[in-house]
């Protein structure tokens, strides 16, 4: 199975997990809003949970809570981002706040976040503690996205985006019973998250007018004085090489190795494909 | 020392803990906003931590992390409430969102909440898990405050307000090394929290025009068809009696017993005194 097929399959499994999770909410209105917030995700982050868990020899079903919790946290963070950015469109439809009001979305998110942490606690207390920390990092990253210095660009990206890539990679060490590789997996997740966000910012720099750039995309533009292309190419290559080195240090099952190696390109081409600027820098 | 003196003292200790906590933030802007959000609280909830911890034989310094974390969570939840209510004034000054924008306040809160959970984790993993649950309850309560049925009034109050009274009471079982009383302490915290919110809603009903009532105060008004006074008197008496029963089942140090028994009246008279309607129903 190639990575694209793997992703289609895991995305569909995750959609089922999300549906089951929502059916179990006791409160109708919480369920409706949660459903709206969690609709139609690409489920990349949850897919990482399946990939790493499988590669380390874990049973597929052991990955379910981690994949579900990762996607709950990601969806909640997007719903909050849309409020603060006044973005009216998300995933092709009205943003949740534009449908349900800020007030309700803030509190549904505040409900979803600890609910996801509860789901994670099946992996034990250490997993829970690290998850709380990673979630804190995403909040610090969101702040740095707003007022961080241009020189801190990579640190901003690590915090705001890579934290939710580190999460499933970290959890897979527990789900597969291979917690001795915890640190390596966190690093690998970080590499993928940085690649994802740097390419995302690159896409923004290419497709948007300079004046309209915000957050980390603006930081990337300023940091490189508008010459972001070579910087992005360099970072992409650095992080990809580092990531491959980490993979080589892990006892991965052979049938997963190619898919894991393909991930950086898969994420990068996915983002560029969406934006119609395929292969512009690679 | 009577309860008023105890409160003045613990409030000042908590203010020092908050200041120390803020000084340790590495990020200047996060520190400034956190400071604004945490300013000038009454520190009632943190004071509960000192009272219960001391009453159960815990060293005072064992209560510090719990009192600090409780006040961080409480302040963050107020900052979010003000955004969703469009309240422009909090603690006699502009609400945080009106100074720093919604965007920043949402993310500072999202930073403060897991930071508080980290502080709590010194009491062990069970304390952390229960805290995550209680914080989830506050979010569900905030939702019920908006669209809950009038008949669910007490349940709404338990979730939205009593959760952050249960928190310090619960943590004191760990800080004092008396975790066998965990459930009783949670119940005692719940009683105090319900009393606090019912009186708070009563104050709203008395001081505001019927049309301006919102949330749980409106639910109280509707549930009792405007005859809230006898209902409030009844609930106050029920919960106070229940609370006293719980205190009698706990091995409390004698010098703390009177202060703990005085808490329901202290909270109720405090709220009514603030609003200038002292002793109207008791």
UniProtKB/TrEMBL annotation, chains A, B:
The keyword Magnesium applies. PROSITE patterns: POLYPRENYL_SYNTHASE_2. One of its GO terms (molecular function) is prenyltransferase activity. Its cofactor is Mg(2+). It comes from the Archaea. The keyword tRNA-binding does not apply. InterPro entries: HexPP_synthase (IPR053655), Isoprenoid_synthase_dom_sf (IPR008949), Polyprenyl_synt (IPR000092), Polyprenyl_synt_CS (IPR033749). Keywords: Magnesium, Metal-binding, Transferase. Pfam families: polyprenyl_synt. GO terms for biological process: isoprenoid biosynthetic process. NCBIfam families: hexpp_archaea. Belongs to the FPP/GGPP synthase family. This is Geranylgeranyl pyrophosphate synthase. It comes from Metallosphaera hakonensis JCM 8857 = DSM 7519.
């Amino acid at each position: 199975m190639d990575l694209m097929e793997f992703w289609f399959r895991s995305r569909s499994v995750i959609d089922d997990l999300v549906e089951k999770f929502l059916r179990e909410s006791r409160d109708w209105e919480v369920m409706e809003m949660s459903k709206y917030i969690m609709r139609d995700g690409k489920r990349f982050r949850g897919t990482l949970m399946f990939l790493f868990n499988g590669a380390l020899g874990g049973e597929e079903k052991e990955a379910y809570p981690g994949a579900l919790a990762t996607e709950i946290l990601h969806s909640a963070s997007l719903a909050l981002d849309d409020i603060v950015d006044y973005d009216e469109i998300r995933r092709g439809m009205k943003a949740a706040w534009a449908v349900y009001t800020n007030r309700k979305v803030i509190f549904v998110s505040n409900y979803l976040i600890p609910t996801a942490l509860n789901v994670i606690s099946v992996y034990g207390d250490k997993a829970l503690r690290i998850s709380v920390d990673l979630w804190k990092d995403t909040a610090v990253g969101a702040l740095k996205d707003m007022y961080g210095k241009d020189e801190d660009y990579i640190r901003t990206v690590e915090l705001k985006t890579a934290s939710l890539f580190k999460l499933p990679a970290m959890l897979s060490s527990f789900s597969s019973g291979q917690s001795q590789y915890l640190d390596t997996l966190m690093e690998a997740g970080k590499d993928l998250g940085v690649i994802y966000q740097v390419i995302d910012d690159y896409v923004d720099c290419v497709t948007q007018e300079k004046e309209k750039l915000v957050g980390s995309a603006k930081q990337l533009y300023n940091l490189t004085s508008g010459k972001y292309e070579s910087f992005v190419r360099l970072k992409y290559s650095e992080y990809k090489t580092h990531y491959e080195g980490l993979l080589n240090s892990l006892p991965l099952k052979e049938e997963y190795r190619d898919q894991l190696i393909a991930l950086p390109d898969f994420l990068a081409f996915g983002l560029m494909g969406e934006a119609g600027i395929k292969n512009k820098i690679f």
